[in-house]
Amino acid sequence: MIVLTFFFLWITVNFNIEAEAVLAYFLIFTFGILHGSNDLKLIQKTSSGSNKNFFLRALASYVTVIGLTVLFFSIVPALALVFFVLASSYHFGEQHWSENTRPSPLTYIFYSCYGLVIFFLLFYTNADEVTPIVSQVTGFHMQPQYYLYVLIASFAGFLGIYLWWYARKKIKVNLVKELFFLLVFVIVFKTASLLWAFSIYFVVWHSIPSLRDQTNYLYGKVTKNTLLKYVKTSFVYWLVSMIGLGLLYYLFHDKQGLFLSIMIYFLAAITFPHVIVMNRLNRT
């Protein structure tokens, strides 16, 4: 992961921003979307349900969550964006730390604090790009210092909980290694454009490890054959997502601000149910 990260950082230095954007979209729309395209299979596995009626109920519940998310953004976009960032932060933290922690109320806070460190480190180092996006979606103009305040508070929460657990011998992860990873993220986020920086973290540090964990959970091991099985079972849902996104782009590509808002709604709509499914998987 470190090697791949620095390879992508080399691309940042040697290619222009347009090339970065093309590669970023490619990574997000392949590995990024794919890692959340097998949720119904995971629901069946965690619930031990295999009949057609169970599948249809799971599908209906999944689509309902997506629909409610879109409605939420349509009615109160500012509040919905806050929930989207919080849910995604928790999800990032859970993916990174779930193998080394046990479920508890404090664990949920720990996951969220770590994910918020990632998000607001990205926001603060790319404030000039982030603020217009937030303004387009919510109508509010965020000052860069607010990103820094949240970053400091979330890092303090993350570090405080870690030290509390370490003192009570409830966690054995090397803190120096984790701080080194955060330093790597600082370098990447400061050097790359917003989209390219996000795609590097989202794909290399989140989506690929998640694909590994999901494949291992579904098939018991990670091999070329089991990865192909994963792709086959998730391909239809991935294709539907891509067709939907392609249609949105066709309709709104000439209205940059509107399409950007719809793009965020789309990503949030498929993120919320995925977060719920992965939380259930980790608890089981």
UniProtKB/TrEMBL annotation:
GO terms for biological process: carotene catabolic process. Its EC number is 1.13.11.63. The chain crosses the membrane at residues 6-34, 54-86, 106-125, 146-167, 179-204, 235-252, 258-277. InterPro entries: Blh_diox. It is a multi-pass membrane protein. GO terms for molecular function: beta-carotene 15,15'-dioxygenase activity; carotenoid dioxygenase activity; iron ion binding. GO terms for cellular component: plasma membrane. Its cofactor is Fe(2+). It is an enzyme of class 1 (oxidoreductase). The keyword Metal-binding applies. It is found in: Cell membrane. Keywords: Cell membrane, Dioxygenase, Iron, Membrane, Metal-binding, Oxidoreductase, Transmembrane, Transmembrane helix. Catalyzes the cleavage of beta-carotene at its central double bond (15,15') to yield two molecules of all-trans-retinal. Belongs to the Brp/Blh beta-carotene diooxygenase family. This is Probable beta-carotene 15,15'-dioxygenase.
